[in-house]
Amino acid sequence: MSHLMQFKPLAPQSRRSPLASFALALALTVAMAGAVLAKDLRFGTPFVNGSNLHKGMEKFAEIVNAESGGRHKILVYTDSQIGDITQLLTGMQLGTIDMAYLGIGNGASLKGGAPLNIGYTPYLFRSKEWAERILNGPIFDEMFENLAKESGVRAFAAAGARSGRAIQTIKGPVVRPDDLKGYRLRIPPIDMFRAAFEPLGVKVVPMGLSDIYLAMSRGQIDGQDNGFDLALTFKWQEVAKHWSATGHVFELATWYISEKLWQSMTPADRLLFKRAAREGGAVTTRLGEEIDRGGVEAIKAAGGTYTMPDIAAFRNAFKDVHKPYEGKVWPVGLVDKIRAMQVSGEGAGQAK
């Protein structure tokens, strides 16, 4: 028998109709499209590896990676590995970086972001809890939406309470605003901070968080104004021994994302990202409170001094800082409205 005779025709059930072939091709196309969406997302921060803020990011990544059905894989980068604050923001605009965990006012440097300066108005919020309620309410929702439209970067969640800001210096103690005259302080590159400190005679020195330790150890700057959460995780208490508990700003860490990426996501994935950010933020807050409870002891254990300053004097020194922005950057009376909400309880139910 010849070899040709060994071939058998296809069984009838194995032949595909044109309709079945089209359906198979369509299914393969959809599967391939799904595979394209299953991309690594680069998520960066200047915050320290192992810090409470890093742990919050890890919780976010854990939830998204487990529940997105393989569509998203979050890769977390700490310590400015993929960029400092400015580079992270620019990277999200360009699409080279997907997400960042930063301060709520860091978006103020972007087009459409200037109103976010209001979040750093000294003594705007009475506590971390009030900051969380109002930053997650309609006033800031509108600001976040405008930022996304104008800049291409969206703040999709404010979650993760930061320690109250203080003044930590290599000389001191600082008790009254006048004590800061002539000091060189590292201050975030945010207009409101400059407007607050320069009238006190402070020379504002912008620099990345990772550069502060060396700059203070060499006397290139005299101090900085973050709270316990960053000061202790960056170990600044080793070189700056004077802590003044001004509590001049309460804020939340904020979850930023490329607007182009956000618009490409399904509604279900957007909800997943928001929920994961809230849960990650809760981790940041819980671990941050542990840091705060041990903060005074940590400062003293490093040989430092902890000072309760004249808060009334600082409030008075900062009381008009916001006025040049009224009617130009945000509506007239908005600062007073936010403060009044905390007296009346109006903002108590706004957190989402």
Describe what this molecule looks like in 3D.
The structure is a single chain. The protein starts with 17 loop residues before the first helix and ends in an 8-residue tail after the last helix. The chain has two domains: 35-162 and 249-293 and 327-349, D-Maltodextrin-Binding Protein, domain 2, CATH 3.40.190.170; 167-247 and 299-317, 3-Layer(aba) Sandwich (D-Maltodextrin-Binding Protein, domain 2). It is α/β, with parallel strands linked by helices and 352 residues long. Helix content is 41%, strand content 14%. It has 13 helices and eleven strands.
Largest sheet: 6 strands, mixed
Number of helices: 13
Counting helices, strands and paired strands, the structural category is alpha/beta
Which fold name is given in CATH as the topology of the largest domain?
A: D-Maltodextrin-Binding Protein, domain 2
Provide the number of structural domains: 2
Rg for CA atoms:
25 Å
Low-confidence runs (pLDDT<50, min 5 residues)?
A: 1-16, 20-36
User: Rough shape?
Assistant: globular
Which CATH architecture of the largest domain would you pick? 3-Layer(aba) Sandwich
What is the C-level CATH assignment of the largest domain? Alpha Beta
Q: CATH superfamily name of the largest domain?
A: Bacterial extracellular solute-binding protein, family 7
What amount of the residues lies in strands? 5-15%
The CA-CA distance between the termini, in Å, is 79 Å
Q: What is the average per-residue confidence, as pLDDT, rounded to a whole number?
A: 90
Fraction of residues in helices? 40-55%
| Topology pattern, helix = H, strand = E | HEHEHEHHEEEHEHEHEEHHHEHH
Counted beta strands: 11
Side-by-side strand order of the widest sheet: 7-6-8-5-9-11
